Fold this protein.
Amino acid sequence: MTAPVLEVSDLTKVFPIVRGGAIRRVVGTVRAVDGVTLAIAPGETLGLVGESGCGKSTLARCILRLLEPTSGRVTLDGQDVLACDRGQMRRLRRDMQIVFQDPYRSLDPRMSVGQLVAEPLDVHGLAGGRAARTARVAELLTMVGLGPEHAARYPRAFSGGQRQRIGIARALATEPRLLVLDEPVSSLDVSTRAQILALLGALQARLGLSYLFVAHDLSLVRSISHRIAVMYLGRIVEVADRDALFEAPAHPYTQALLSAVPVPDPILERRRRRIVLRGEAQSADAVRQGCHFAPRCPRARDRCSAQDPLLEGPDHPVACFFPTTNEETP
């Protein structure tokens, strides 16, 4: 089997809860990421889905060390990311880049498009001479569906979709192996979303990129991902191939998410059984032990509140003591 581009093992991020005025004190902690393990193969897209606040973006930033994890292990092409010093980390960042959610805030309005796209080349010493730098910027802009003439303009002159293309061009400048896509189309209209997703698919096929695609929209994730990981309150609760997850979800939380996704057939839509979860999701600082989903789970038993279920299974791992079988899937 091909070695994974990215491996994450038991990754945890704990934030302190600090209160007080002149004398500040730590009164608790929030486990935003709680023992996450995952892997991404070369040329693969792993979709990461879950409710807002479940820890998806925090996990993505910990993988890139934009946030320092509390514990765990992250390897990129076999290199221990968390063991790198500043110099090693600077070199390693060439191989892993991020496209942010908001194209209106992620681009410096004081820099031209050419400067924005060329900045990674300058930082990593990849620019060469002025002519080579200009040619590379033109190549990158063309690659994402823009033109060399756009290099002299500023972000304010572009639409949201065009700005996201600029962000993608900037991320590709260092020829990375891994792109983290943190809800890259959530702020765009439907038609523009489709264009950006098509662009990402074409770039992956052309360049052999691996993607971690973070989103809360399951229909978007299905359209671009090879595998999907479902996250709930800092933990991965289910991982499966895209089609297997949609056709035979095993975790009660995954089933509830999928039951809320509309289908285009009105007859099937009327026949579908909605799963309405009881209560509200716990705050991450309130979680103590046992399955994090137990307070809202229709299948929960005493064991679920007392023990932590492990993410287990060879092809379709599920963190649940009482997963649903194919025959029982709604």
In short: Residues 190-207 form the longest helix (18 residues). The mean pLDDT is 89.
